[in-house]
């Protein structure tokens, strides 16, 4: 990160904001990103990317048509991976990998996205030694391109009903892959349409006449020389989408397509040559690639929200519109209290999500080490944490980005702002890797929280709780929340408030479920009738985790220059959640009306405190103009002249007269004239 972000020629308002900040941006950046050394490495990586001619992003991606965009993203992906090992530590996907990729690929996926984000981790963790020897080399050298083909036209969520079959034939020691219906067609896999010649295919395993559920297979789809689909394989692109249009998400069908026995991933489950099935240690080990993406996407999502809020705060500092005191001049829109309430909670959220991403990364790495030793103990915990965070974080990120866009008025609607790209990319995260509601229900039903199981075991006095769930067993306090005013409230009190709300809803949902079990004829029906309350319980549980984790993380900071900023943002995060959380905090009079009014006063006072530092705080996220790709969010604040330049470079302005005018409008006008 540079010594100072102030330069000659910068917009005067934004310069004044930076001069008036009460702390040094470098210090906060170091804390946010995990230390000075990491910030230094980010700068080193950024400089190396800037120096490399092949990584120059000369084409403004937003002006490209779909096929041009796909081609440009493929060019960038190849260049990015050609020089990757000279620039980054490729084994650090959560840190250097994700940053490096964002500098080059922007908010889009590409021909190699799934190759790196799902296939590589799956091969590292699910292939046996022999398969690892055979597959890892070509994956790393990129002599093949691969993807992860699981979802079908008819089924994405309910994996047990996938229709693609893999039937073992012991005579030839092959599996026969088949798509028996239209709805069995694989649909959605990234880079499947035109780029990949291999895929991990999830198919229902049948051997010796028995069904064993979905299992992963590493399947060649296209000829290594001609890239033509192999006989028995039908494959193509599914067409334009809301976002990620650089990626050729695809469809795939098999017609009795034979593949060798050793294409089934064999580290966990196995099929022996005679067709004997050997089950895995844990039934869900084959779902590991999904767990990896759910874990890594928390950081990705927080960075999307971080870039949106950087753009919105910087723009709000240079945009002057309206007067607060009549005749005293137009104010920066950042001075409006309503603007601050729209924006500053997004700063807090970005940090809360990022600190949670650090936690889930640590857990993922611990689980991976355990699994290497054959120990699956922590897997359910990781499944629960990553599923719950994935749902809450991607939803709040999408809502936050939209608030940032709205806060920028008309210019926020232009592609020049970058909001359309950020939003359409990030919001995909609500759907992929498990639809958000379904993942919340997982948290409630099956995951490490096992909320429902936990409640019954707590009441039976047999609960064995993890650190993250132990609060559920604590007795609800009979007294009110300890909140008196924002100045005096402690992190512990705020955490206690969220735990109160979560506990209250968890027990409420549990009791409703039990009641419904007496009213409906099956447990599944009762479960469905309790779904809304269960999702609320999961959401509050995850929010309690986010608040607790934020304050735990920040407690490591002893620097008197930046600690007050982190505390203000943490309090804003919590109080905004309490004020918006309404009923869960007021049940049984835990928060009184007066306390709630004081919470709102506390928020207003925090907004005032954060206001003078807002630009410096978002500067500390350390986004370069290269990453932001936003005229509104430029570091130098010179927005208006660059908006004009941006519009003028638009291909529609290459000629003064458009073909639309020549072909359609002119003949109409000429005809109109003739009728006069
Ligand atoms: C060198 C250069 C490098 C540069 C490159 C760097 C790259 C850096 C990376 C960048 C990161 C950017 C991130 C963005 C990438 C985006 C890519 C997007 C691609 C998208 C891909 C996909 O979407 S793939 C398809 C995903 N599909 C799903 O997620 C389907 C959802 N459904 C399910 O997961 C399941 O069906 C289910 C969980 C909903 C239910 O499963 P099932 O019916 O089988 O089980 P049960 O409900 O019966 O549960 C039984 C039991 O199992 C437990 N369980 C379920 N799942 C898991 C699991 N995964 N792990 C552990 N345990 C699990 C469940 O809790 C139950 O437990 P009980 O104890 O019995 O209750
Ligand atoms: C951008 C993007 C990239 C993707 N990339 C890939 C990829 O690379 N590989 C791949 O295999 N797939 C990929 N997918 C597919 C993705 O994983 C699925 O779309 C996702 O898992 C949701 O499944 P679905 O489409 O079947 O939704 P559905 O399950 O049909 O969901 C529709 C609605 O039904 C609800 N619902 C479904 N089941 C339940 C339930 N049990 N209880 C309550 N409500 C329920 C959901 O909450 C939702 O509201 C991608 C999708 C997108 C959008």
Automatic annotation (TrEMBL):
UniProt-listed SUPFAM superfamilies: Acyl-CoA dehydrogenase C-terminal domain-like, Acyl-CoA dehydrogenase NM domain-like
Cofactor(s) it depends on: FAD
Domain Acyl-CoA oxidase C-terminal residues, every copy: 492-669
Pfam families xrefs: ACOX, ACOX_C_alpha1, Acyl-CoA_dh_M, Acyl-CoA_ox_N
Location of the protein in the cell: Peroxisome
UniProt domain Acyl-coenzyme A oxidase N-terminal: residue ranges: 25-139
Pathway: Lipid metabolism; peroxisomal fatty acid beta-oxidation
UniProt xrefs under Gene3D superfamilies: Acyl-CoA dehydrogenase/oxidase, N-terminal domain (1.10.540.10), Butyryl-CoA Dehydrogenase, subunit A, domain 2 (2.40.110.10), Butyryl-CoA Dehydrogenase, subunit A, domain 3 (1.20.140.10)
Domain Acyl-CoA oxidase C-alpha1 per the UniProt entry, residue ranges: 287-446
Residues forming the catalytic site: 433
Positions annotated to bind FAD: 151, 190
InterPro entries in alphabetical order: ACOX_C_alpha1, Acyl-CoA_ox_N, Acyl-CoA_Oxase/DH_mid-dom, Acyl-CoA_Oxase/DH_mid-dom_sf, Acyl-CoA_oxidase, Acyl-CoA_oxidase_C, AcylCo_DH-like_C, AcylCoA_DH/ox_N_sf
CC terms in the record's Gene Ontology section: peroxisome
Keywords in alphabetical order: ATP-binding, FAD, Fatty acid metabolism, Flavoprotein, Lipid metabolism, Nucleotide-binding, Oxidoreductase, Peroxisome
Entry's family note: Belongs to the acyl-CoA oxidase family.
Protein name: Acyl-coenzyme A oxidase
Native source species: Panagrolaimus davidi
């Amino acid at each position: 990160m540079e010594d100072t972000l102030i330069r000659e020629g910068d917009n005067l308002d934004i310069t004044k904001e930076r001069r008036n900040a009460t702390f040094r941006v470098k210090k906060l950046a170091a804390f946010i990103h995990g230390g000075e050394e990491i910030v230094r490495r980010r700068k080193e990586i950024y400089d190396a990317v800037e120096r490399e001619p092949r990584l120059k992003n000369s084409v403004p991606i937003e002006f490209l048509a779909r096929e041009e965009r796909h081609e440009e993203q493929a060019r960038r992906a190849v260049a990015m991976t050609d020089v990757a090992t000279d620039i980054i530590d490729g084994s650090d996907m959560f840190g250097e990998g994700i940053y490096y990729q964002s500098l080059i690929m922007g908010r889009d996926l590409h021909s190699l996205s799934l190759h790196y984000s799902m296939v590589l981790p799956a091969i590292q963790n699910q292939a046996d030694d022999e398969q690892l020897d055979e597959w890892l080399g070509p994956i790393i050298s990129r002599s093949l391109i691969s993807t992860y083909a699981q979802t079908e036209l008819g089924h994405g969520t309910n994996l047990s009903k996938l229709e693609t079959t893999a039937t073992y034939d012991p005579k030839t020691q092959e599996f026969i892959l088949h798509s028996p219906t239209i709805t069995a067609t694989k649909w959605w896999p990234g880079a499947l349409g035109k780029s990949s010649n291999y895929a991990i295919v999830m198919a229902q395993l049948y051997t010796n006449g028995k069904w064993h559920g979905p299992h992963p297979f590493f399947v060649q789809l296209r000829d290594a020389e001609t890239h033509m689909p192999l006989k028995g394989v039908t494959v193509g692109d599914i067409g334009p989408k809301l976002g990620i249009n650089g990626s050729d998400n695809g469809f795939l069908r098999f017609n009795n397509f034979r593949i060798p026995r050793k294409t089934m991933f064999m580290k966990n489950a196995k099929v022996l040559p005679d067709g004997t099935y050997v089950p895995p240690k844990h039934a869900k080990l084959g779902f590991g690639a999904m767990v990896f993406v759910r874990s890594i996407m928390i950081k990705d999502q927080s960075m999307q929200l971080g870039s949106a809020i950087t753009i919105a705060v910087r723009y709000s500092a240079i945009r002057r519109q309206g007067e607060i005191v009549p005749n005293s001049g137009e104010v920066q829109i950042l001075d409006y209290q309503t603007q601050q309430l729209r924006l500053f909670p997004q700063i807090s959220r970005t940090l809360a999500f990022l600190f949670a991403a650090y936690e889930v990364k640590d857990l993922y790495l611990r689980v991976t080490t355990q699994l290497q030793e054959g120990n699956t103990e922590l897997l359910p915990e990781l499944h629960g944490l990553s599923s719950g965070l994935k749902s809450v974080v991607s939803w709040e990120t999408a809502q936050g980005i939209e608030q940032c866009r709205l806060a920028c008025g008309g210019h926020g609607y232009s592609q020049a702002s970058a909001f359309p790209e950020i939003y359409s990319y990030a919001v995909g995260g609500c759907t992929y890797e498990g639809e958000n509601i379904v993942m919340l229900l997982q948290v409630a039903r099956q995951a490490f929280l096992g909320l429902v199981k936990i409640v019954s075991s707590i009441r039976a006095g047999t609960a064995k709780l993890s650190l993250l769930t132990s609060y559920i067993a604590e007795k609800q306090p009979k007294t009110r929340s300890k909140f008196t005013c924002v100045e005096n409230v402690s992190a512990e009190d705020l955490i206690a408030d969220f735990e109160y709300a979560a506990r209250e809803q968890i027990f409420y949902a549990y009791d409703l479920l039990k009641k419904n079990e007496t009213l409906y004829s099956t447990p599944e029906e009762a479960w469905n009738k309790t779904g809304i309350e269960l999702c609320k319980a999961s959401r509050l549980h995850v929010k309690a985790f986010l608040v607790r984790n934020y304050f735990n993380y920040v407690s490591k900071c002893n620097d008197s220059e930046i600690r007050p900023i982190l505390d203000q943002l943490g309090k804003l995060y919590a109080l905004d959640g309490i004020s918006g959380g309404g009923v869960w905090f007021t049940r049984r009079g835990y928060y009184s009306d007066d306390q709630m009014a004081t919470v709102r006063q506390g928020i207003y006072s925090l907004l005032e405190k954060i206001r003078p530092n807002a630009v410096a705080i978002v500067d500390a996220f350390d986004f370069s103009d290269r990453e932001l790709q936003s005229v509104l969010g430029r570091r130098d604040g010179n927005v208006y002249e660059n908006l004009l330049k941006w519009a003028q470079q638009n291909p529609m302005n290459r000629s003064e007269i458009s073909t639309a005018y020549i072909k359609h409008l002119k003949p109409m006008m000429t005809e109109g004239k003739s009728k006069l």
